[in-house]
Amino acid sequence: MNLFLLDIDGTLVDSDEIDQHCLTLAIEDVLGISTDGNWSQYQKVTDSGIIDEILLKNNISESRSIIHRKVEARYLERIREYLNNNPSEMHEIKGAKKFIDQMQDREDTHIAIATGAWESAAKLKLQAVGIDTSNITFTSSSDATSRTEIMALAAFRAKQDTGETFDRRVFFGDGEWNKNATQELGYDFVAVGTGVKHHTQIPNFTHYQSVFSQLSL
User: Which residue has the higher pLDDT, 86 or 113?
Assistant: First the structure.
């Protein structure tokens, strides 16, 4: 049995620039702190991990949970405002919905989302491009702060959902932090897009079959 773990931003949804724009604005709105949106400089490249590091660096003593809720709520407002003003700007990575549908039809494969975004924002972005998550194992930055924790928890939940033991765990992602986390966990990695170089790489999901042979799937 195969477990396919999927990131969202830049992997299933072409939302990296929108995500960066809205999160930096939300942080400034709530905390009055300007960030450049270069998430690669953070140790934990997840919504919750980024906020934790900003709080630590700026010696902010207000309740962590309260600040997280405030930033998340403002972030959602910013995304909704952006989508209302730019309804055609957010779209799926080519072939993503069809790929998910086809994988869900396979008896030897289970699909899970493992995203560094907060669950509320992640589901809003997926909904915006028409991807249904109701029957998909889902783990996010609302559950854990690090990519490895999120991926490991997704695999655990997938086992609970299916009762299956997975022979292969394959993560599809677009960032260097995704690649590093899969190496730490011993999962296979498929790079989506051009953001990170890897020996198994696809420009989008219309080409997924090209890596299946390389991974012996």
Answer: 113
